Amino acid sequence: MTTTKGSSPRHKEVWLNRGLARDEPALAQVVCYDSIRSKSALMLPSVPLDWTCGELSEGLHCFHSGTFFECHEHWELVWLAAQEPEKTFLQGLIQVAASFHHFQRGNCTGTISLLRSALRRLDKYPDVFAGIVVAPLRVAIRSWLEALEATPQSSPPPFPQLQLSVRGSVFSNRS
Predict the structure, then answer these.
(1) How far is Cα 128 from Cα 42, in angstroms, rounded to an integer?
(2) Residues 54, 16 contacting (CB under 8 angstroms)
(3) How many domains does the chain have?
(4) pLDDT score of 73 more than 60
(5) pTM for the whole thing?
(6) pLDDT tens-digit map of 76-94
């Protein structure tokens, strides 16, 4: 994930549709990140990630349906408004989505590079963080890297599905 995508017409369109100029700081409200529209919104030091609404939910649906570029776009809007430690966590998830987009386009080198980078970020988090069960995702990333870096290259496993955690329990949110 890069922060220099402002020149992309699609990215600029997403920003303008959300009521943000590229150079304005992103602001977050308490309920959902779907409300990144108001300049007068309250800036919070840390906002819990709500995977049931707004851009996070849309991105999750895209991730599970294999539309990884769109997933990346949804989650990047949240990432721009997030504070640490959620910001780096989201960056890792976005890199996972972007890596699979590269894979779908036949860019194995880009896939490996982004998966490695995502794993470096996600390895710093506990097994469950911000509503996501991280441990199986890390296992899936390692399986993908093993398959893609093997000589000769082997078939990668299926794309992982993110598991949500709710009050100590885990459930799979497959759309």
Answers:
(1) 27
(2) no
(3) 1
(4) yes
(5) 0.71
(6) 999 999 999 999 999 999 9
Q: Pinpoint the alpha helices (H) of the chain.
A: 9-17, 54-65, 68-81, 86-104, 108-122, 134-149
Q: Give CA–CA dist 97/162, Å, rounded.
A: 11
Give, in order, the Cα–Cα distances in Å from 113 to each of 33, 120, 136.
Answer: 29, 11, 20
Separation between Cα atoms, residue 19 and residue 71, nearest integer Å:
20
CB atoms within 10 A of CB 106: 8
Tokens of 101: 């987009």
Residue type, 93: L
**In which residue are the tokens 């097994």 written?**
127
Instruction: Give residue 107's domain range.
Output: 5-172
CATH number for 100? 1.10.3450.10
